[in-house]
Design goal:
By secondary structure, the chain is α+β, with helices and mostly antiparallel strands. The chain has one helix and three strands, in the order E-E-H-E. The chain has one domain. The longest helix has 12 residues. It is elongated, with a radius of gyration of 18 Å.
């Protein structure tokens, strides 16, 4: 394979990333955040990921600051 050849998606991986507010502030007065990243099935939808984040939030005292669904496509073939 070389520049201009046809590429294929070898594998799609998805991760649910949640940024939590721990309720603690540092010495500068900034909120201390905790970032958690979990693997999810490659066919998970945005709505399912969003709902999963809030289901997890019900198990903690932390508040959600941000939810991300990170999609990684592994491209190839590489020769």
């Amino acid at each position: 394979m070389a520049f201009g050849d046809t590429v294929i998606n070898l594998l799609t991986e998805k991760r649910l990333q949640i940024v939590w507010d721990t309720g603690v502030v540092d010495e500068e007065g900034k909120a201390v955040l905790y970032r958690q990243s979990l693997p999810v099935e490659s066919d998970v939808t945005e709505q399912e990921a969003y709902d999963a984040a809030y289901n997890l939030a019900s198990l903690t005292t932390y508040s959600i600051v941000e939810i991300r669904l990170i999609v990684t496509n592994n491209l190839g073939p590489i020769t």
